[in-house]
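Troubleshooting: if your tokenizer reports a length mismatch, compare your output against this known-good record of 140 residues.
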Amino acid sequence: MAKENDLFAGPGLKADLSPMIDLVFLLLIFFMVAANIITFPKDPNVIIPVASDAKVPKLVEGRIVINIYIDGTIKDVEGNTLSTEQLTQKVSQVKAGNPNARLHLRAHRGVPYKHIQEVSRASAAGGVPTIIFSSYQTSK
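Known-good structure output:
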């Protein structure tokens, strides 16, 4: 009478691990691609300034990304042009859904300060006083 463990230990029975290894590599590639999709879209028409003391913010969740162009035009990441009143409404709507909302401001490096000040005031009026200014980090 054969033992129960002897059923699977017969001659010529080997486990082929190559499909499992292929699956692991496919999952690895999937998660690498998915991690790159999580970032917000960057408008190539907005050339942000360079700063030697720039720091990369850790928390991405709850950001309201706004672009300011050289002519003072304000756009969201979808490409919709916003007035300061529309920006205040947008910020207050996001703030209602997420109390930790912050404004991520991507201003063109040559934009006059008055346009940045208008966006800052609109954001504060909408209930979001915290602003993250976008800049490229340089080596020190």
